Each structure stands twice: as C-alpha cells, then as structure tokens.
C-alpha cells in the first residue's frame, strides 16, 4: 500500500504539527463519473415524475367528484356547504397546476436523456 499526501487549501502538506484549529481544510480528490450520476438522476426523475402523475390523477378524480357534488348542492340552498366545497375545488385546482408545473419541469430537464435511453 502506498502512502498518499493530502494538501490543504494553502498548498501545504496536511500532515504534521500544523493540523489543528485554524489550519487549512484538506481537499481529497474523489473520482466522479458524471455519466453514472446523470443516469441515476434520470432514473430518480422518472420515478418522481410517475409519482407526481399518479398524484395528479387522484386529485383530478377528486375534482370530478367535487364538481358533481357542487352541481347537486347548487339546486338546494345550503350556502355554507357550497362555499366550503368551492374552496376545496379551488385548492385542488391549485394543487393540479402545481403538479403540472413540476411534471413539465422534469420533462424539460430530462426529455433529451429519456429520448436517448
């Protein structure tokens, strides 16, 4: 086994008595495979995109259910229930838009990578 020398940020040898509080920080070099990282990021993004799409489907189904319920309530005069339901619908619409935005951002970032796979 060969000994390697680590240098601190000032370029000095990081061994010896000057190692202590206030000395430079050792910066070891670690080999990094960017293609491997990119593939890993792509797989994580694909998984996350699928989870976001699934969540969006669930919220869209809830919006359909809420809209049908609102249509039924509109024939009666229950103003408090109608108001609450409209608030819930607006909140779900906002969540759908947020999910659409996140899905689109992942698509923009990783479309080229996914096309090459």
Explain what this protein looks like in three dimensions.
Helix 1 runs antiparallel to helix 2. The chain is built from two helices and no strands. It is rod-shaped. It starts with 33 loop residues before the first helix and ends with a helix. With 117 residues, the chain is mainly α. The longest helix is centred in the middle third of the chain and has 41 residues.
Q: Give the helix tally.
A: 2
What gap, in angstroms, lies between the N and C termini? 40 Å
Low-pLDDT regions? 1-8
Order of helical and strand elements: HH
> What's the rounded overall pLDDT mean?
80
What's the shape? rod-shaped
Number of strands: 0
Strand content: under 5%
Report the sheet with the most strands, covering strand number, pairing sense and barrel closure: none
- Overall SS class: mainly alpha
* Alpha-carbon Rg, integer: 28 Å
Roughly what percent helix? 55-70%
Chain-wise SSE layout:
Layout: H1 34-74, H2 79-116
Short description:
The chain is mainly α and 117 residues long.
Search tags:
68% helix; rod-shaped; mainly alpha; 117 residues; 2 helices
């Amino acid at each position: 086994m060969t000994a390697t020398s680590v240098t601190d940020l000032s370029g000095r040898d990081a061994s010896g008595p000057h190692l202590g509080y206030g000395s430079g920080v050792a910066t070891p070099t670690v080999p990094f495979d960017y293609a491997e990282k990119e593939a890993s990021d792509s797989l994580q993004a694909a998984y996350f995109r699928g989870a976001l799409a699934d969540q969006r489907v669930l919220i869209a189904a809830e919006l359909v259910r809420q809209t049908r319920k609102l249509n039924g309530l509109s024939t009666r005069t229950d103003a408090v229930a109608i108001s609450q339901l409209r608030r819930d619908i607006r909140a779900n619409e906002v969540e759908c838009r947020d999910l659409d935005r996140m899905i689109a951002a992942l698509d923009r970032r990783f479309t080229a990578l996914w096309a090459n796979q």
